[in-house]
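Duplicate of #3305? Posting structure anyway:
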């Protein structure tokens, strides 16, 4: 488990200053210092709830009210949270380097990088945003809806929401006694009470986030590919992510294959995910991204 990677901030500074093209992949760990949960770590969302019951198109079909309540809850939490100094450090680096030199891909849907004034052209939202709403049946799309609650039927009372989520989506190893996926028969919210599409009138509205089995936003993927293809990448920062969800994680391979050094910033140095074994020319900074980023990106 011993890594060959360097832990020297000084060495990293030298590499950072000499890098002309920097690529970054962010994950939930970046927002932990803002008070938001990760998915797979201690206290992680997928440790308490089954992702198949909450973050798939099938789950939405089965019980749209449950899924909307889960995201209403996440939305409410994200709106209460504030960007941390890690988000701000990345935004500052972006401004100082410009679009040609820096691109930041985030898997986070919490809107905190945007609220840290991260330049939008250099922030690629791989899994979209909690604050974009779309119709499940037609092309209707509504960006930047920051209302809380987003709809009267989705008012979040923390205790009752977590109780409902636990009852319907609790992660219990191999419990076959309940119906498939533990779903109850009565819908969490009656269909008529759920927000419907103002365009087609019949479709249900849903968060525009990317669920398991769904394609990532095509225009975003195109923009990323164009950036990558332009010139070689010198440095790839992998921040607060297990880098286990595809295709997001595959960009680390792409950068590595293109010759980039990798720098992992993570609370848990075992969580290298798709970054695999770090090499001698790579970096590993173990700890809170909000503590490390302002230090290494200085
Ligand atoms: C700290 C810290 C601190 C803690 N400081 N660090 C192979 C190839 C391609 C696809 C697949 C494949 N195998 C399987 C698939 C399918 C699937 C997938 O990847 N599954 C894997 C689990 C194996 N992928 C998909 O389904 C994707 N779509 C797709 O493939 O479509 C195909 C298609 C093409 C064309 C047409 C149709 C279909 C979509 C994936 C969408 C993922 N969505 C989620 C949930 C929705 C959004 C939401 O609710 O938020 O996105 S899953 C969840 O995981 C969320 C996250 O964005 C994502 C990544 O998690 P992240 O950010 O890495 O969090 P954690 O918890 O894993 O890690 C946190 C890290 O932080 C840890 O390492 C901690 O140590 C660290 N940390 N505190 C620094 N203070
Ligand atoms: Zn519609």
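Output from current build:
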């Amino acid at each position: 488990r011993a890594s060959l990677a360097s832990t020297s901030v000084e060495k990293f500074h030298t590499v950072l200053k000499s890098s002309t093209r920097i690529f970054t992949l962010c994950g939930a760990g970046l927002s932990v210092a803002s008070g938001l949960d990760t998915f797979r770590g201690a206290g992680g969302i997928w440790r308490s709830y089954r992702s198949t019951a909450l973050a798939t198109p099938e789950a939405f079909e089965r019980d749209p009210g449950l899924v909307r309540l889960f995201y209403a809850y996440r939305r409410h939490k994200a709106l209460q949270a504030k960007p941390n100094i890690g988000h701000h450090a990345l935004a500052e680096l972006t401004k100082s380097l410009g679009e040609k030199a820096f691109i930041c891909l985030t898997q986070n849907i919490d809107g905190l990088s945007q609220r840290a004034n991260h330049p939008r052209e250099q922030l690629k939202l791989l899994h979209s945003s909690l604050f974009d709403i779309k119709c499940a049946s037609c092309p209707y799309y509504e960006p930047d809806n920051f209302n809380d609650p987003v709809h009267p039927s989705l008012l979040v009372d923390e205790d009752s929401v977590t109780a409902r989520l636990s009852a319907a989506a609790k992660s219990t190893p191999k419990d076959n006694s309940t119906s498939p996926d533990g779903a109850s028969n009565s819908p969490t919210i009656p269909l008529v009470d759920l927000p419907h599409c103002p365009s087609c009138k019949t479709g249900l509205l849903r968060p525009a986030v990317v669920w398991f089995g769904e394609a990532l936003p095509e225009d975003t993927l195109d923009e990323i590919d164009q950036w990558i293809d332009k010139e070689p990448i010198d440095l790839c920062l992998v921040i607060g992510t297990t880098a286990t969800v595809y295709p997001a994680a595959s960009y680390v391979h792409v950068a590595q294959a293109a010759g980039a050094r990798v720098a992992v910033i993570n609370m848990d140095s075992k969580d290298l995910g798709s970054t695999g074994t770090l090499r001698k020319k790579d970096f590993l900074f173990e700890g809170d991204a909000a503590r490390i980023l302002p230090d290494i990106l200085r």
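Confirmed duplicate; merging threads. The first strand starts at residue 22 and ends at 26. Residues 1-36+83-128+215-298 form a domain with the Rossmann fold fold (CATH 3.40.50.1220).
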